[in-house]
Write a structure and sequence with these properties.
Blueprint: H1 2-47, H2 59-68, H3 70-82
């Protein structure tokens, strides 16, 4: 009887760990996307002067880089080069 209780406890613990770890993976992915987008935006701002491209860092550009990541920062660069 005790073996069944221990097995049930182990299964319950594994189930709870799976429930807890899945949201953490999503949060980690969002943090990586946010950091990479802001890093690319910073790199464009710092090194863009060498190539004649200027991107102003304001609320719009920062939020696009945070929400969209690297594609958002590259999109901002493309729009600034077209205008």
């Amino acid at each position: 009887m005790i073996e069944y209780i221990v097995a049930l406890g182990i299964l319950l613990t594994l189930f709870l760990c799976c429930i807890i770890i899945r949201p953490l993976r999503r949060i980690r992915g969002l943090m990586i996307k946010t950091a990479s987008g802001l890093t690319v935006l910073l790199a464009i701002t710092v090194f863009g002067g060498f190539f004649g491209v200027s991107v102003g860092v304001n609320l719009f550009t920062a939020s696009a880089a945070v929400l969209l990541g690297v594609p958002g920062a590259v999109g901002i660069l493309a729009v600034s080069m077209l205008l």
